[in-house]
């Protein structure tokens, strides 16, 4: 039985992560903590036999990917379809500021797949429809291999829901911290979550596992 594995690695911390500001597709750089997290991820993943490394083209993801890929002696393939959800005019605002502007949408993060983030942002459905073809191409290209995909927290949470066929309100063990990853296995018999890293932002590398 051929098993294909994808490791979804979230980028290291940025100042906007630290101050709880919505980033979306704003190109915010890693802060000093984020750089350390990228190097910690590189050390933790150094023994893995990845066939390839793919990354969002946003700098916080790309620098994280390049840091890990350098230790693996692999190039990074950049794909803009792996960008975070576009939050439009909410970019740079805290959740509290968004809720103050739109009190009816206090739980905007948990809204359904067709809820639009601000007047010019994406819906969850649009984000998944944008990113899934990239994931499907990676799976086809690296059948039976293990591949690293570096990107963003909200994107990966919704891609995990999609590939694991979970309901929209499901949470996959916990939120994916900066510099942490989830590993998913694919075969003709199904798709399952192998491990999900839920440690603290500064680098607790404990994992949990579940089979679906």
Topology:
Layout: E1 4-10, H1 15-18, H2 32-45, E2 52-55, H3 59-72, E3 76-78, H4 95-101, H5 124-141, E4 146-151, H6 153-163, E5 181-187, E6 190-197, E7 207-208
Notes on the protein architecture:
- This protein is of the alpha/beta class and 212 residues long.
- The protein has six helices and seven strands.
- Strand 5 and strand 6 (190-197) form a beta hairpin.
- Helix 2 (32-45) packs parallel to helix 3 and helix 5 packs across helix 6.
- The chain is globular and about 50 Å long.
Brief rundown of the structure:
The chain is of the alpha/beta class. It is built from six helices and seven strands.
Key traits:
212 residues, alpha/beta, 7-stranded mixed sheet, 7 strands, 32% helix, globular, disordered C terminus
Helicity range of the residues?
Answer: 25-40%
Q: Count of helical segments?
A: 6
Order of helices and strands: EHHEHEHHEHEEE
Main beta-sheet annotation? 7 strands, mixed
Overall pLDDT metric: 86
Spatially, the strands of the biggest sheet line up as 3-2-4-1-5-6-7
Shape: globular
**SSE class:** alpha/beta
> Which regions are unreliable across 5 or more consecutive residues at pLDDT < 50?
199-212
Tell me the strand percentage band.
Answer: 15-25%
Amino-to-carboxy terminus distance = 17 Å
Number of extended strands: 7
> From the alpha-carbon coordinates, what is the Rg to the nearest angstrom?
16 Å
């Amino acid at each position: 039985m051929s098993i294909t594995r994808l490791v979804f690695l979230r980028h290291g911390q940025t100042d906007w992560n630290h101050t709880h500001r919505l980033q979306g597709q704003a190109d915010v750089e890693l802060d000093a903590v984020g750089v350390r997290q990228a190097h910690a991820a590189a050390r933790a993943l150094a023994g893995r036999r990845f066939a390839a490394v793919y990354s969002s083209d946003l700098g916080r993801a790309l620098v994280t990917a390049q840091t890990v890929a350098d230790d693996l002696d692999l190039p990074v393939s950049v794909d803009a379809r792996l960008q975070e959800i576009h939050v439009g005019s909410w970019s740079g605002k805290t959740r509290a500021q968004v809720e103050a502007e739109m009190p009816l949408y206090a739980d905007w993060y948990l809204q359904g797949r067709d809820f639009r983030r601000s007047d010019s942002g994406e819906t969850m459905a649009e984000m998944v429809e944008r990113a899934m073809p990239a994931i499907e191409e990676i799976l086809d290209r690296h059948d039976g291999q293990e591949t690293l995909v570096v990107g963003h927290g909200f994107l990966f949470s919704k891609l995990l829901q999609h590939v694991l066929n979970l309901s929209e309100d499901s949470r996959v063990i916990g939120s994916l911290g900066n510099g942490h990853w989830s590993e998913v296995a694919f075969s003709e018999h199904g798709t399952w979550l192998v491990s999900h890293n839920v440690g603290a932002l500064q680098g607790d590398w404990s994992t949990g596992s579940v089979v679906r």
